[in-house]
Design a protein that fits this description.
- The complex is a heterodimer of chains A (about 120) and B (about 110).
- Chain A contains no helices and 11 strands.
- Chain B is globular.
- In chain B, strands 2, 4, 5, 9, 10 and 11 form a 6-stranded mixed sheet that branches.
- Chain B has about 110 residues and is mainly β.
- The chains are: A mainly beta (about 120), B mainly beta (about 110).
- The interface between A and B is medium-sized, with 25 and 25 residues.
Chain lengths: ~120, ~110
């Protein structure tokens, strides 16, 4: 069973461009979480999704950021019009259908976004 | 809002010593608590999960305790090895999310 997959592993964008980060959860997992780790900071929650539903997006900036987890395919975190402050490592985690209440969250290797 | 504090922030120990890493959190309304390991530039590796109803969980040389009412968890690593050098993160789960502190950065000296 492959682990959580994220791509790309490294992404460089210029200010004003769009960044698309992909996350494929572990097989059989239907819950996906996105976290962001700014330099020298701890990981911060961004959004929690189930298939075709956003459950909690309270950690995500209201503007420029969006996330989806379609019925088919990976979860996508999209950042429009990137700014230098968006430079960070973005981690995706997945858990089985019971969600995080009793189950381990498994993390992907992260996407390191650099905004020039 | 859940606040997580890990003490000490950094420590170096000689190989063979036991490690004690402390974590405190402000909101005791949690479902579980995970300990992770993060190597530089890498993702997080789950080490242990303790359910809110449990007091302790063990895996090999690792033992984690949880005192939910006082908002504390401790990770013990027995007989440390150089390969244990990493940052250890404590993360209580509640309110649809894991909350993280800045971690305990551990160096085990051969």
């Amino acid at each position: 069973n492959a682990g959580v997959m994220q791509n790309p592993r490294h992404l460089v964008r210029r200010r004003g461009q769009e960044a698309r980060l992909r996350c494929s959860p572990m097989k059989g997992h239907s819950h996906v979480y996105w976290y962001r780790q700014l330099p020298e900071e701890g990981l911060k929650f961004m959004v929690y999704l189930q298939k075709e539903n956003i459950i909690d997006e309270s950690g995500m900036p209201k503007e420029r950021f969006s996330a989806e987890f379609p019925k088919e395919g990976p979860s996508i975190l999209r950042i429009q019009q990137v700014v230098r402050g968006d430079s960070a490592a973005y981690f995706c985690a997945s858990s089985p259908p019971s969600g995080g209440l009793t189950d381990t969250q498994y993390f992907g290797p992260g996407t390191r976004l650099t905004v020039l | 809002k859940q606040e997580v504090t890990q003490i000490p922030a950094a420590l170096s120990v000689p190989e063979g010593e036991n490690l004690v890493l402390n974590c405190s959190f402000t909101d005791s309304a949690i479902y579980n608590l995970q300990w992770f390991r993060q190597d530089p530039g890498k993702g997080l590796t789950s080490l242990l999960l303790i359910q809110s109803s449990q007091r302790e969980q063990t895996s090999g040389r690792l033992n984690a305790s949880l005192d939910k009412s006082s908002g504390r968890s401790t990770l013990y690593i027995a007989a440390s090895q150089p390969g244990d050098s990493a940052t250890y993160l404590c993360a209580p789960y509640g309110n649809n999310r894991l909350a993280f502190g800045k971690g305990n950065q551990v160096v085990v000296i051969p």
